[in-house]
Amino acid sequence: MATSNQKLYLLDYGAGNVRSLLNAVEKLGHTIEYIRSASDFDKADKIIFPGVGAFGYAMKALREKGFVEPLRAFVESGRPIMGICVGMQVMLEGSDESPDEPGLAILEGRVRLFDNTAKAVPHMGWNGAQVVHGASGAAAAGGAVPCIGKDARYYFVHSYGLAYTGQASQPQTVHTATRYGDETIVSSVWKRNVFGTQFHPEKSGTAGLALLRSFIETDLIRPSPSPQETGSAGVLLPRDIRDSLSVRVIACLDVRANDQGDLVVTKGDQYDVRVSASEGGHVRNLGKPVDLATRYYAEGADEIAFLNITSFRNMPFRDTPMLEVLRQASRCIFVPLTIGGGVRDIVDPDGLHKWTAVDVAGEYFRSGADKVSIGSDAVYAAERYWSRVAEGLDPLDGSTAIEQIAERYGRQAVVISVDPRRVYVASPESTAHHTVKTTIPGPNGELYCWYQCTVKGGREGRDTDVRQLVTACAALGAGEILLNCMDRDGTNSGYDLELIADVKGAVSIPVIASSGAGAPDHFSEVVDKTGVEAVLAAGIFHRREVPISAVK
């Protein structure tokens, strides 16, 4: 059993959002310190090693900080260590994500890219984790075991995974396995003092907090395998692992300053956030951002998205109110947080401090965000992509915010927010854009339309259609599409199924359906008819017209 005076340390190599892990540890009543130098490894009784983003970036950062050998020595000392996501992967021999970059080889195995032929990649959402060995030596000896619930779901977000076979020596290292579509992967490892999860316990609600508690408050030491564990007898095979992935329900909060300068959650009617002139013309105020987000977490939202629709150009970026919103929200909300708005190159009002889009994203991540949403700049990036294709140039030159953020923090951290609207045409030959045959005729009886991308909050249309946008952004490294629809926004008439089905068929990354939900049946309809990985709503949740529990 762990003692209260054990020193818990966090190994941070500069990857994304570690604030959520710090907050989770504090929520459990413990403190944790950073490993800032190689000498800090000797001070630690336990280490939590979170990782987000690219395998190669993580290994390079560990080497540059001089952490590789101290980390190996810590493991050899027998003191407990817990790796999370990439923090688990780098303990393996290598990854196809960075084929020339060897892993730490503390555990056997190599991480490989998911096959996206029959499913979306990244694997993103809440899935189960099944213990694969029939009996644990630790449990048989009365020792502590990781607290992983039989029917619990945990939050996964990754494109690469370690295949689970159940053969050879795998059962001596693997603790749980998870099925995603047609593939089964290792979702947690446990070998002697090394424990690791592919999923993010700090983003997995109460189930994840319980798992973190079991690592912090007990010593998870797995004994050497007994004779019955050295073979495959009593070990689950890949076919025994069930697919428990659920459709994510996301609560979205449009945040802006009202006329008095207060930060409020608002909701537009086809992107107009002000009430009618007869009602005063003021900005709709549906509540305070952190208060509403906390309510949604308590009601069971799988994710929460903050979309900042105020520019805040008159203040230094570090003083932007949304950073404080994230800090406060991440202290009490333990599901993924997305932030949208302002993820681009910016210059502070004094003209002295310049922020690249990667810098902006990094500050959001350090404040508590897990993903950043890019809107207008994604349209400009897609236009540049197709322009370079037409000129015979390499469209992937690393110059866009999408590419740079994905390289640093992983493609799962980049969401593309799309704001399209219908443009009706008489026939597909009437336009150069990709068209959809529609069951909702246009004003002149047109049976075809194309979906025009917009920028600047829907105020400006571009000569780019939604299929051009999503395919370009997926190629540039985006991990997810947040698909809005200007025609359905605020109407409560249901999602635009034609738009969503068309986009879902064009990309192999996850798609979030947004705009138009007004009843529980609208959510099930869009999932059944389009196969989207997530559904999002705002106003009906804010006004309690439809409870999140009814949707789930």
Short account of what is shown:
By secondary structure, the protein is an alpha/beta fold. Helix content is 28%, strand content 23%.
Number of strands: 28
Largest sheet: 8 strands, mixed
Principal-axes geometry comes out as globular
Output the radius of gyration.
24 Å
Please give the count of helices.
18
- Structural category: alpha/beta
Low-confidence stretches: none
What is the end-to-end distance? 38 Å
Strand content: 15-25%
Q: Can you list the strand order of the major beta sheet?
A: 2-1-3-4-13-12-11-8
- Specify the helix fraction band: 25-40%
Give your account of this protein's structure.
A hairpin with a 2-residue loop joins strand 11 (174-180) and strand 12. The chain contains 18 helices and 28 strands. The chain has 552 residues and is of the alpha/beta class. Helices cover 28% and strands 23% of the residues. Helix 9 (289-299) packs parallel to helix 10 and helix 12 (376-390) crosses helix 14. It starts with 7 loop residues before the first strand and ends with a helix. An eight-stranded mixed beta sheet has the order 2-1-3-4-13-12-11-8. The model has no long low-confidence stretch (mean pLDDT 90).
Topology:
Elements: E1 8-10, H1 19-27, E2 33-34, E3 46-51, H2 55-64, H3 68-76, E4 81-85, H4 86-89, E5 94-95, E6 110-113, E7 123-127, E8 130-131, H5 137-140, E9 154-158, E10 160-161, H6 170-173, E11 174-180, E12 183-191, E13 194-197, H7 205-217, H8 227-230, E14 248-257, E15 263-266, H9 289-299, E16 303-308, H10 321-332, E17 337-340, E18 346-347, E19 354-355, H11 357-367, E20 371-374, H12 376-390, H13 401-409, E21 414-418, E22 420-425, E23 436-437, E24 448-455, E25 460-465, H14 466-476, E26 480-483, H15 497-506, E27 511-513, H16 520-530, E28 534-537, H17 539-542, H18 548-551
